[in-house]
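Why do we care about 3D structure at all? Because function follows from shape, and shape follows, mostly, from sequence. That is the central idea of this module. The next example makes it concrete: a single protein chain, its amino acid sequence, and then its structure expressed as tokens.
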Amino acid sequence: METEPITDGDKGKLRMKVLADQLGISMDEVTEKNYSKKQLKRMMRDKMYHQQKIAKRQIQKVKKKLKRQDLKQQNLLKPKKKDIRVSMYSSPNQVKVAIDLSFNQHMGEKELRKLFKQIQRCYSCNRRSPAPCQFYLTSVTGQTADIINEKQPGFRNWEIHQEEKHFLEVFKDHREKGTLVFLSPNSPNVLPDATEIQRRNGDYVYMIGGLVDHNVQKGLTLKIAEENGIQHARLPIDQCIQLFTSHVLSVNHVFELMLSASQGLPWSEAFLQIIPQRKQNRSKEVLALIESNKLKKKEEEGIVDT
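And the structure:
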């Protein structure tokens, strides 16, 4: 009895079945989420990368431990300096800065992956800050959540307020009080100075739209704020700095600026520190301000030029 020849379509399905088995997912899930073979291969590469990364870290830990033991036996081990890291939960900084992740339908997978990298930078910046702000992620569901959990298996352990609910529900009380502010580059309103933001402390929530700067949806964040009766404002870019590029900043740069403002750092200094120099149009006035800030810092530290 002759067997039917295997077609290219059958071979493709078989390869996808093998990839799905290796990833630990069913073909029903593959069909439901409409995964392509290219996506499954990428997921497999990511899985292997994370496995290799974990194994490499374990080897490094063992090597480090053996090295410390060797130095200890030779009495060459120096006292370890512990970094005093302030937990977000115990931080005196109660200013709430949130990123809204409900924009899945406005971005493709490539943009969502870029957004996750920007969120990673936000988290790292807040963790290392001497006074972390209260960092929120809202609408952590759907494809965005899948990408985050795929790229960062330990995401649930992050020191961050993670909410599956929409920001309108999470910050319902602030919305009713009029203390929920959606940041939008198209808003006619400008945020107050940093000292006022610091003074408000936890009374206000500042929302950042989770859209990557390569996928600008002109007026979308302003439209959302107006439709829901929410306050809106923009960063004081024009008053503080001249940019060669668009005034639409990346999510991590907006977050870092808000974090600096929540700690009382003047906007003008924050922009110069955070915005990359390649994007800045540094006029004579701006350069004079930078030099003035350097001299001021030296005077505060008691350094005198001779």
